[in-house]
Amino acid sequence: AAAASGGGGAGPCPLLLPLLLLFLPGLAAGPAGMLQPRDTPSRERRELGGLWSFRADLSPRRDAGFAQRWYRQPLRQTGPVIDMPVPASFNDITQDPSLENYIGWVWYEKEVLLPLRWLQGDPAPRVVLRFGSAHYYSIVWVNGVQVVEHEGGHLPFEADISSVVQGSPGSLCRITVALNNTLTPHTLPPGSIQYMTDKSRYPKNYFVQNIKFDFFNYAGIHRPVVLYTTPAAYIDDITVTTTSSDSIAVVQYQVSVVGSTANSLSLSLRDQEGKVVATGDGPVGELKVLSPNLWWPYLMHENPGYLYSLEVKMQAQVDGVLLEDVYTLPVGIRTVHVTSTQFLINGRPFYFHGVNKHEDADIRGKGLDWPLIVKDFNLLRWLGANSFRTSHYPYAEEIMDLCDAYGIVVIDESPGVGIKLPESFGNKSLQHHLAVMEELIRRDKNRPSVVMWSVANEPASELPPAAHYFKTLIAHTKALDPSRPVTFVTDANYALDHGAPYVDVICVNSYFSWYHDPGHLEVIPLQLTAQFENWYKTYQKPIIQSEYGADAVPGLHSDPPVMFTEEYQKAMLREYHAVFDKKRKEYVIGELIWNFADFMTCQGTTRVLGNKKGIFTRQRQPKAAAFVLRDRYWKIANESSCLPPVITSHSPFL
């Protein structure tokens, strides 16, 4: 297990940190809609990125902030604070090694002045505070009043703060966040705190955070914090699903309104030229689009990622005042269907040739970074990748927006990674996992790029409790969204996996000649062929090779190839590809390399500055394997394209 030190000396007393996640009463994030904040004629948004005040609670029990009620006053008045950028992980920002591996409560604060128009009016507008994500458990106060708490590090949460800010004198809004990165057997991802009681070897109250996943447990406010407004009566949620034929498409919609019964609700669907192609009214209905432009994946069509704009307009009477709310949702028209041997998008076979990624980079950790995001998408398209999995947690909405716009297909994965302990399959863990899937689907349900949900990665699915766990979890996910297939990613033996009977697509990870028979490339053809044949014979479901790869230290060379060299990484890929080429003619529907780029992990004897399985370095420079994969992906794209010419010598990514 990887471990992060909680420090020595005055550490927390045994079992306190997990309990701290539970001891404060508060307002849980409710089941309301989670529309992405947008500027519209009726809505304003303001990002709160930049420098926040920051303080780690270094008290023996990590509870000084609560005992002394730091949220009641400016954080700088409670003791020393430092500047901390948001969004960013806090771990790598300073020169303090204790902060790099800190476990416990940290505190953030930002003071902002609100426009008077947000505070006045009859009725006054609704003011909402939204966090794109904060890892892991968050409690938020505004002007000393608790407004929300949320468990989970990779999905948005928000609070209506209208009554707090509109009832306070002046326009100052002081936002205080207490954030705890402790992982327990019942969090997602799970973890455990281990206390070292041997006083001859460890300082008093020494503890470590154990985890069963292979990436660094970065913590902080990782995605944008936004204040936005809506009218007092507003559009709360929109759900769209699409069906299509060659000549007509149907966009089914459902709109929910909060604050009043809408006097009128109208919808207009516009194409990319701004032309209205369909209209509707009422909270439930369908829009018919003649000769639709379908949403196609990158390299499958000359115009991938086509998005319409659905404008929803609501008018409602509140206290005798007519209010109007407007929200515009991007809509892609596409269908997904799975057979026993194929994955169909818009009725045509789709082959996943893509990558696994991480939200990970130097200095900012998992913090959202626009230059990095754009660079990654340019590299994906240069590579000829048409897809990726959000390993091993939901990615930022800003990333998902570009997937929709560029036609990059997504397997959208929950943070269910490292589920290894029997107690992590109990009812407490299951209930939280169900809630996480609700949050994920609520956020991403309308995205055309998302073609499949993945509920977990490499769980101990050979354990008997996994049968009930995954049967329940997958059924719940399908009930929430019947329009998409559901999977989880397995590394269990095909004959022992208790969760596989319930998935629509088999996603399997294997590292032949790396973790198994290390250094023996010659075993790959036999072992990989047997893997595919055993899984397909047992389940008769299409298969994705959801992970494969080898570490390569950039600049390390050897011929004949030996492990950790760029030559070995290339050789392993080619051995896998030879088997893929045989089986993709039958029932293998995809291959996702592990990994797109090198990424940070906890320290350990098998990791030298992180995991080096990237085909790009952490700084996004290509290793030799990147060119092998690029040649392969463009060749597959040219072979499978039925629309001439998808790829030409004029492509900016060639």
Automatic annotation (TrEMBL):
Domain Glycoside hydrolase family 2 immunoglobulin-like beta-sandwich: start-end pairs: 233-334
Keywords: Glycoprotein, Glycosidase, Hydrolase, Lysosome, Signal
GO terms for cellular component: extracellular space; lysosome
Regulation: Inhibited by L-aspartic acid.
Catalytic reactions of this protein: a beta-D-glucuronoside + H2O = D-glucuronate + an alcohol
Keyword Hydrolase: yes
Cell compartment(s), UniProt: Lysosome
E.C. code: 3.2.1.31
Annotated signal peptide: 1-29
InterPro entries: Beta-gal/glucu_dom_sf, Galactose-bd-like_sf, GH, Glyco_hydro_2, Glyco_hydro_2_AS, Glyco_hydro_2_cat, Glyco_hydro_2_CS, Glyco_hydro_2_N
GO biological process: carbohydrate metabolic process; glucuronoside catabolic process
Pfam families xrefs: Glyco_hydro_2 (PF00703), Glyco_hydro_2_C (PF02836), Glyco_hydro_2_N (PF02837)
Residue ranges of every copy of the Glycoside hydrolase family 2 catalytic domain listed in the record: 336-637
Gene Ontology terms for molecular function: beta-glucuronidase activity; carbohydrate binding
Domain Glycosyl hydrolases family 2 sugar binding as annotated: residue spans: 47-231
Entry-linked NCBIfam families: PRK10150.1
Subunit field text: Homotetramer.
Family: Belongs to the glycosyl hydrolase 2 family.
Biological role stated in the UniProt entry: Plays an important role in the degradation of dermatan and keratan sulfates.
Name of the protein in question: Beta-glucuronidase
